[in-house]
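In this section we turn from sequence analysis to structure. A common task in structural bioinformatics is to predict how a protein folds when a small molecule is present, because the ligand can shape the pocket around it. The inputs are simple: the amino acid sequence and a SMILES string for the ligand, here pyridoxal-5'-phosphate. Study the lines below before reading on.
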Amino acid sequence: MGKKKGKVSPLISFLNQVVLIPFVPLLCNRNAFLKTACCYFFKTYFRFTYEIAPVFVVMEEILLKKMHEMVGWGEMEADGIFSPGGTISNLYSVLVARYKRFPEIKTKGMAALPHIALFVSEHSHYSVKKAAAVLGIGTDNVIAVKCDERGKMIPSDLEAKILKVKRQGHIPLYVSATAGTTVYGAFDPLDNIADICEKYGLWMHVDAAWGGGLLMSRKHSFKLNGIERANSVTWNPHKLMGVPLQCSAFLVCEKGLLQACNQMCAGYLFQPDKQYDTTYDTGDKTIQCGRHVDVFKLWLMWKAKGTRGFEILINKSLELAEYLYKKLNSRENFELVFDAEPELTNVCFWYIPPNLRRIPNGPEREKLLHQVAPKIKARMIEEGMTMVSYQPHGDKVNFFRMVFSNPATRKSDVDFLLEEIERLGKDL
Ligand SMILES: *Cc1c(COP(=O)(O)O)cnc(C)c1O
């Protein structure tokens, strides 16, 4: 076949998809790159039982114990599983919370249950809603609790909404508090939420997919105070800690619950009369069968860096966020979405072009400002020098959201980003 002009060669297209795309984010991090490469080339896939994957089963157990310890739970009770991402870990949390209260769900299904309700904050990640849809609970039964200006759940509104659900004769089952919200990087007041969960008998989940990494930092871990009172936790090492996708841990405080909830005891894998301790056949805890061995990447990185290495990396990302925050504060053509020091590495801001600065605050200015970030981003993509995400949120029009987690980022990159935004947006 002759080559046609304008068509991408199948070889390039293959390389692009199979080789380049998964690896591009890793090129800046040689360790991570090598580790992921190892996993791909040696095809390290979990095969659900100890006899098939003895090393990885034990690795997973050891790391789950370590993570339990960092959350503040007793090591002996450590239970959990590495899952394909925070979305799935959050799904596990709803699944297990529901099973704990209504074990008949497993055999009888939703028809056997009363009307149940879940609670999340307005700023929570959409995955809890998705879990409610997947698990047959329904998104209408995920109640959004109000947040303050900083994006933190308001405990009194949580309590009011729980009471309202009870008055309707429904069962308040579960709260997902967020430790590090996706957009604002906010930490919900975990201790206050735990008090309410105890008072009304709700399962407390902490979605620390994004902010869990701070547990590695002696300087910043206090922001998760109260996490030790949770029934379950989602923590994604593939976010703040820079482990290559995907690597997410679902941690549950009560041992045995995951197994009871999910096990199907397939006779061809999980024979009870094996010669070894079959509690090491951890595959039946999951909603999968075969599983990718995500724990291996975290294991290697932890061995190479140590907890201190992760701490340095995380503290550095937070310093960059602080640096950006201070820069924005000192420049009159930028405006912060909320004026508070970053608690995580998220910094949310608007760029105000000169033409807009002349217009007084009001709907007219808002309407124009809403168009600024998308236009600048489109120009960024055309020029190919930099990229930053934007979104509207609640009543806030489109704003830029910078997050730091790449260890190669320098202060000069932050300066460059602001210069670029200004250069590309000053005529808008
Ligand atoms: C990213 C994120 C998730 C989802 O994690 P994935 O691994 O992308 O599925 C869940 N919760 C929060 C708070 C997040 O920031």
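The CA atoms of residues 262 and 286 lie 6 Å apart. As an exercise, try to locate the residues that line the pyridoxal-5'-phosphate site and compare them with your own expectations.
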